[in-house]
């Protein structure tokens, strides 16, 4: 890890998961600056410690429904420099859409069980810190697989759809090139065609990537 | 009457006719007396006065005897008739009367009328004995009018020695004392300033204290009576300077007013009879109307218009005592109706219905009997219908409770799986991962492989658990409502599902669940049916109902298997008083349509 370690706040009402995740992240070179077991404590920790990324469980006391999601939206609105990663039990893209629609940058939505897959978790945190938008691969796969009627996504070739799915997972062009065993130039060409077919004109690259993900979510 | 022997009936009839003849004849004779010597009379002064005198007296006698005939045990009728007769007494102390016996009667009784009229008014309508203040005031009135103005001066009045040459002899005269006559007249006037007011006050007090029904009934009588007493008082007040009552112009005017007040009393007594008669003829119409078997609630309308009370309500008793329902099966609480009168309609000792109506509408028990007789079959029919619909409503409510309880269990189970089992599995996989990172690179290779396999198994278990929990009761339905849940459903469906429209708002939990499971089940069934290529879902909110339509394009015949599966759904929908049907669309597939009340 280059430079200072990334500063993380973890909010989860289950002590075992909170502490376990913290241990795994510390082992992987992150600095855990705060831990919280409910939304108010999380917001206080974020305000005091200015972490780089807050990891938030979607269900927290008192109602165990979407307190984590609400808190994450609040963090993105009040502390734009803090990225958020919401961990959730739910596969439904609805919850992810709720988070990413309003604050698509520096936000991520992963399934809860990813906490034990430190590689995925660490990668997601880093990419969120870089301002990207990360969606769980399982949700992406489900959205790709789902039967749909004709729409702009039907214009895409098989390869382009693969590329879009990887963009939605938050992968960089370089990572996509590695995963699909293509040259970076080819990947760039694919990405350009995806943006064109989805009607996303020239703008900052990462912004277009986020818009592409949203188009994908909404389709 | 039925218990009497024929001879007794005949005698009774003869006695009654004699009573009528005597009372009316007395009035005629009194008028003749008055006209024989007009100067000392009231009724003899003009034709108008003659008509007023006869009309007032006869009217009271007629209504009094009519009352007595209707309710022989109630003495208020006889009192009214007596008041009518006493009205004529004032003419009998006329010097031109000729007969000493008649003149002597007149000397004693001439001032009695106000006391008897007041007595009749206070006794109306029940005829029961008066409370103490009423009795005391009446005693003073009778003493003032009958003794001080009547008997006592008669004892000391000798017409021949006291300048009345044409007067007949006074049979009661004991001695002659002109001073005593004057003093007694003076006393009579003073007393007369007290008792009419006291009697009017007692009447007003009793009126305000009586029940609303009684007030409705006797208001005209009390008003007429009080007006009469005030006119009597005015006569006494007018006579105060003179020291005795007389019959000057002003007093004849007052007397005419009294005649009108008595006429008002008589009219007031007949008012409930007229009303009852009107109600009876309306009841006859009701019987005809009810022949056309009215819809539920139609009987209430018919009774309300027949009895002339648009606010009338009908309550039918249920098996559990104290519970009443209307024709539609909705609960009616007769106790919670302030200022309303509740009249039970009974048949064979059991209450068939309660009529809740404005006070005084049905104060006559015979009238209630007639209503019961006229509307009996209709009431009975409507009661049975109402009981059935109340039972249906109870049943529906209990079905809804069963479904609600089942849903609550499902939600709880879903939550337990997510927050309990799934969290534990995540913790377990995390613990395994931590243990795995603690292993050095030179550890047993089999151990590492085993741990990785265990991790993968836990991951699979988490995934299966998630699907299971979602199938039991989707959390997104609880958290975000129907539209979000349907959207999530489309992500899982085996064939493309197009959402045409789903209202975004929240609905009662049971309605949302019924609509959701209907759509989920229908989509599943359509997908499983041969040839189905896609499905579309449309939910519309219309007048407190959710209209759900799931259409399968290219789907085959519905078939009995689909019908069986849909039965479970129609139970859920039916519990909310909704409906479900399957339609075969010619050449296009099938449509499963549900109507689910959502109360908003």
Low-pLDDT residue spans of chain B: none
Characterize the overall form of chain A.
globular
Mean pLDDT of chain A: 84
As residue ranges, the low-confidence spans of chain A are none
List the helices and strands of chain B in order. Answer: HHHHHHHHHHHEEEEEHHHHEHEEHEE
**What is the mean pLDDT of chain B?**
84
Q: Helix/strand-derived class of chain A?
A: alpha/beta
- Find the biggest chain interface: A-B, 31 and 40 residues
Radius of gyration of chain A over all CA atoms, rounded: 17 Å
Q: Rg of chain B to the nearest angstrom? A: 45 Å
Proportion of strand residues of chain A: 5-15%
List the helices and strands and how they pair.
The complex is a heterodimer of chains A (219) and B (600).
Chain A: E1 7-11, H1 15-27, E2 31-36, H2 39-49, E3 53-57, H3 67-78, E4 83-88, H4 93-102, E5 107-111, H5 118-129, E6 133-135, H6 137-145, H7 158-168, H8 173-180, H9 184-197, H10 205-218
Parallel strand pairs in A: 1-2, 1-3, 3-4, 4-5, 5-6
Helix pairs in contact in A: 2-3, 6-7, 7-9, 7-10, 8-9
Chain B: H1 6-36, H2 47-70, H3 76-86, H4 100-109, H5 113-123, H6 132-155, H7 178-192, H8 195-209, H9 212-239, H10 249-290, H11 298-307, E1 313-317, E2 324-325, E3 331-332, E4 341-347, E5 350-357, H12 365-438, H13 445-472, H14 475-480, H15 482-492, E6 497-501, H16 509-528, E7 534-542, E8 545-553, H17 559-574, E9 579-585, E10 589-597
Parallel strand pairs in B: 6-7
Antiparallel strand pairs in B: 1-2, 1-5, 2-3, 4-5, 7-8, 8-10, 9-10
Structural account:
The complex is a heterodimer of chains A (219) and B (600). In chain A, α1 links the parallel β1 (7-11) and β2 (31-36). With 219 residues, chain A is an alpha/beta fold. Chain A is globular and about 45 Å long. Chain A has helices at 15-27, 39-49, 67-78, 93-102, 118-129, 137-145, 158-168, 173-180, 184-197, 205-218, and strands at 7-11, 31-36, 53-57, 83-88, 107-111, 133-135. Helix content of chain A is 52%, strand content 14%. In chain A, α6 runs antiparallel to α7 (158-168) and α7 crosses α10 (205-218). Chain A is built from ten helices and six strands. Chain A has a six-stranded parallel beta sheet with strand order 2-1-3-4-5-6, sandwiched between helices. Chain B has 600 residues and is of the alpha+beta class. Chain B has helices spanning 6-36, 47-70, 76-86, 100-109, 113-123, 132-155, 178-192, 195-209, 212-239, 249-290, 298-307, 365-438, 445-472, 475-480, 482-492, 509-528, 559-574; strands at 313-317, 324-325, 331-332, 341-347, 350-357, 497-501, 534-542, 545-553, 579-585, 589-597. In chain B, the strands form two sheets. In chain B, strands 3-2-1-5-4 form a five-stranded antiparallel beta sheet. In chain B, α16 (509-528) links the parallel β6 and β7 (534-542). In chain B, α2 packs across α10 (249-290) and α12 (365-438) packs antiparallel against α13. The longest helix of chain B is centred in the C-terminal third of the chain and has 74 residues, at 365-438. Chain B starts with 5 loop residues before the first helix and ends with a strand. The relative contact order of chain B is 0.05. The chains are: A alpha/beta (219), B alpha+beta (600). Chain A binds chain B through residues 14, 16-17, 20-21, 23-24, 27, 59, 64-66, 89-95, 112-113, 115-118, 142-143, 146-149, and chain B through 415, 418-419, 422-423, 425-427, 429-434, 437, 455, 458-459, 462, 466, 470, 474-476, 478-480, 484, 487-488, 490-498, 534.
């Amino acid at each position: 890890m280059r430079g200072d370690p990334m500063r993380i706040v973890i909010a989860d009402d289950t002590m075992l998961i909170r502490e376990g995740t913290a241990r795994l992240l510390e082992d992987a070179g992150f600095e855990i600056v705060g831990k919280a077991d409910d939304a108010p404590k999380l917001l206080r920790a974020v305000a005091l410690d200015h972490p780089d990324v807050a990891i938030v469980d979607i269900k927290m006391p008192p109602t165990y429904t979407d307190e984590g999601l609400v808190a994450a939206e609040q963090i993105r609105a009040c502390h734009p420099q803090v990225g958020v990663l919401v961990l959730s039990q739910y596969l439904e893209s609805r919850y992810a859409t709720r988070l990413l629609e309003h604050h698509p940058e520096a936000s991520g939505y992963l399934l809860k069980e990813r906490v034990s897959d430190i590689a995925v978790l660490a990668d997601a945190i880093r990419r969120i810190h870089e301002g990207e938008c990360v969606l769980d691969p399982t949700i992406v796969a489900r959205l790709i697989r789902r039967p749909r009627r004709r729409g702009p996504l039907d214009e895409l070739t098989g390869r382009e759809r693969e590329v879009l799915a990887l963009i939605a997972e938050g992968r960089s062009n370089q990572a996509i090139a590695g995963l699909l065993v293509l040259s970076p130039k080819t990947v760039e060409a694919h990405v350009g065609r995806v943006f064109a077919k989805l009607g996303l004109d020239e703008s900052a690259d990462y912004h277009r990537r986020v818009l592409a993900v949203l188009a994908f979510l909404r389709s | 009457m039925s218990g009497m022997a024929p001879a007794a009936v005949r005698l009774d009839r003869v006695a009654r006719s004699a009573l009528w003849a005597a009372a009316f004849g007395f009035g005629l004779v009194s008028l003749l007396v008055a006209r024989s010597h007009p100067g000392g009379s009231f009724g003899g002064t003009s034709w108008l006065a003659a008509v007023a005198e006869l009309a007032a007296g006869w009217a009271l006698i007629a209504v009094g005897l009519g009352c007595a005939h209707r309710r022989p045990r109630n003495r208020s009728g006889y009192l009214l008739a007596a008041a009518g007769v006493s009205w004529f007494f004032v003419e009998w102390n006329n010097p031109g009367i000729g007969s000493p016996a008649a003149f002597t009667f007149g000397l004693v009784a001439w001032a009695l009328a106000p006391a008897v009229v007041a007595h009749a008014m206070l006794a109306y309508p029940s005829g029961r004995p008066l409370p103490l203040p009423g009795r005391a005031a009446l005693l003073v009135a009778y003493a003032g009018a009958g003794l001080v103005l009547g008997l006592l001066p008669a004892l000391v009045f000798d017409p021949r020695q006291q300048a009345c040459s044409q007067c007949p002899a006074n049979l009661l005269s004991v001695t002659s004392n002109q001073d005593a006559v004057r003093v007694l007249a003076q006393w009579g006037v003073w007393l007369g300033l007290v008792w009419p007011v006291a009697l009017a006050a007692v009447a007003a007090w009793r009126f305000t204290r009586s029940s609303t029904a009684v007030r409705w009934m006797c208001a005209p009588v009390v008003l007429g009576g009080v007006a009469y007493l005030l006119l009597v008082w005015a006569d006494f007040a007018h006579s105060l300077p003179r020291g005795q009552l007389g019959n000057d112009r002003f007093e004849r005017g007052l007397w005419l007013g009294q005649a009108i007040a008595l006429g008002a009393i008589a009219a007031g007594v007949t008012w409930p009879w007229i009303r009852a008669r009107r109600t009876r003829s309306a009841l006859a119409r009701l019987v005809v109307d009810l022949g056309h078997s009215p819809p539920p609630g139609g009987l209430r309308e018919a009774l309300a218009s027949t009895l002339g009370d648009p606010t009338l309500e009908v309550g039918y008793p249920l098996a559990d005592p104290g519970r009443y329902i209307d024709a539609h099966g909705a609960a009616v609480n007769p106790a919670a109706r302030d200022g309303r009168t509740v009249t039970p309609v009974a048949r064979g000792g059991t209450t068939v219905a309660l009529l809740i109506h404005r006070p005084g509408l049905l104060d006559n028990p015979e009238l209630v009997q007639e209503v019961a007789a006229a509307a009996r079959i209709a009431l009975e029919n409507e009661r049975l219908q109402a009981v059935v619909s109340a039972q249906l409503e109870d049943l529906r409510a209990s079905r809804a409770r069963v479904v609600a309880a089942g849903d609550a269990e499902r939600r709880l189970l879903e939550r337990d799986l997510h927050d309990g089992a799934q969290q534990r599995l995540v913790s377990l996989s995390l613990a395994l991962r931590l243990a795995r990172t603690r292993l050095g690179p030179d550890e047993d290779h089999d151990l590492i492989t085993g741990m990785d396999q265990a991790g993968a198994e836990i991951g699979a278990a988490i995934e299966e658990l998630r699907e299971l929990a979602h199938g039991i009761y989707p959390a997104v339905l609880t958290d975000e409502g129907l539209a979000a849940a349907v959207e999530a459903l489309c992500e899982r469906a085996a064939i493309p599902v197009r959402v045409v429209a789903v209202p975004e708002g929240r609905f009662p939990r049971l309605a949302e669940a019924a609509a959701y499971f209907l759509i989920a089940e229908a989509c599943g069934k359509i997908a499983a049916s041969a040839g189905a290529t896609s499905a579309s879902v449309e939910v519309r909110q219309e007048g407190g109902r959710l209209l759900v339509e799931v259409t399968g394009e290219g789907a085959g015949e519905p078939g009995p298997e689909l019908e069986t599966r849909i039965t479970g759904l129609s139970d859920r929908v039916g519990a909310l008083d909704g409906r479900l049907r399957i339609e075969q669309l010619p050449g296009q597939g099938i449509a499963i349509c549900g109507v689910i009340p959502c109360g908003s």
